[in-house]
## 1
Amino acid sequence: MRSVPAAAIAETVARLCIEANTRLPADVAAALAAARAGEDWPCARETLGLLEQNLCAAAQNGLPICQDTGMACVFVRLGGGVHIEGNLVAAVNEGVQRGYQEGFLRKSIVADPLRRENTGDNTPAMLTVEWAAGEGLEITVAPKGAGSENMSRLAMLRPADGVEGVRQFVLETVRLAGANPCPPVIVGVGVGGCFDKAALLAKKALLRPLNVPNPDPYYASLEAGWLREVNTLGIGPQGFGGRTTALGLAIEEAPTHVASLPVAVNMSCHATRRASASL
């Protein structure tokens, strides 16, 4: 049994909040550069260039990539052989509070969805804990802005709708979103599970590096094919047209009921933010 102090978790979360909001993951930066090189519509190419300049300025000056520094979605993968000395939830929230204050990041969380009073420190975090074997502890912070989050959709399709029904739902979701999520986007698709599980799968799909396809060749093929179709919609960077509506598309799947076919789509913008660390 390995012990990890709650204080170490808080310190790590604080650091990851700042890192995720100021530095674009290498795989996303590479995809953005490749998209610009392959874009033949001048307006789209220029727009992608401006986005890259903004990302470079953020990294060089330690400033947020986007003015919406998002809700702090924190994913913890916790080994069964790890004992946390203290309260995990409290430690994560302390880390978010410190990170958003020390990094001068915008606080966007309201305590109640209808009365709308800001909590003032961007807590509570949206925490997801996944249990694993061994003595590992991995933390991923993925700040999620509302522009892309608000474009999420979930449907309980009929099993008879099959893969074609899922495909149509994904394409329709991106088309209806248009320029609202600040494209080019990354599209996370969750298929299977139950109502809430599908939504979680879609969000977790956004955590996978863009250069890592689904390990199942069947789903990897769907990812590549649907990404090509998304990029024929003509929305383009910031909605100005072109072939770069999405930088990537990832699918996560889970077993489901014989009479169900849940599907969820969650998008993140070109400034997809995530940072991870192991303790």
## 2
Amino acid sequence: METIAQIRAKLLRLPIIYRIAIGNALVIAIGAVGGTLITRQLANRAADLGLILLFLFIGTSLSVLTNFLIIKSALRPLRQLGQLVREVQAGQSDISPQFLKENDPDIAQLASAIDSLVRQLEDRNLQLRALSERAINAQEEERKRMALSLHDDTGQALSMLIIHLEQMQTRMPTEWIELHAKLNAAHRLAAGALTELRKIIAGLRPTVLDDLGLVPAIRWYARSNLEEAGVRVEVQAEDELSALPAQLNATLFRIAQEAVNNILRHAQAQSARIILCRTGGEICLQVEDDGKGFDLQQIQEEAVRLQRLGLLGIQERAEMVGGRVTVESSPGRGTRLSVSVPLPASGNGRYEE
């Protein structure tokens, strides 16, 4: 048994072309020997034509079957390689050392190359994700800093300018009509600039997110933007979700913000609904609209080329906190975005760094 096992192991390590050649040689040899012996027996017995045809059919069938089994056995590594590729596509990238040891050298080399490429891609993806996370966190911090600076410096300066203009209007003689008109115009201009500045600050970092929490911030942003554009919006959320970690609050708000902006820019919707709830150990955010929808596969394929990175940004933000994203859409049937993010396992309201 040990000798047979050793021969089998050596045959398995032979290149496929050699296995097929050996198998075909065996089939030809066996067929030639067997055919000669059968022909001699039939000639000695003066067999009739029907018996000769029967043996010819049996011999041919056995030869074809034997050749098929040999080729099937010889090509088994190719089927294993195909299975390996399917497993890699499904995210199971580990290759057994036994697979590399017992297989055809060419197949083993291909499998080893696939394994190496997959590991390189995984390492590169981890590096890119780390860089992306750092960039997003830096962007969030910069937005917060800019919002605070604009509020404390530019906002205060505009407020003082408006106050001074109002004081000048009250102290100026009423007969100076032309100057009053110019002051009124300057007052309206300063007030408009302050209003626009507050919108910019709110877009950078809404104070309601820090002061009141996630639910009021999403409700405020959705209503102030969608309803202003004529889109009916319904927000369904649990009030106790306000006590979430700061990073999770910011992530979910930015995802909802991007989803609302996508509705405004592309959906042409009449109504929208936002649902935010806690399910088990996860926070679930769902944004859906009754707009024109889109071909999801086409958008994913053209996203980078056309610089339409909204869905990619949502995916990236969700993955930063261990979440997953599902998008359902088709032309003429609206869009539904679903995001599920696990709550931190530490239970202390913070994500581990």
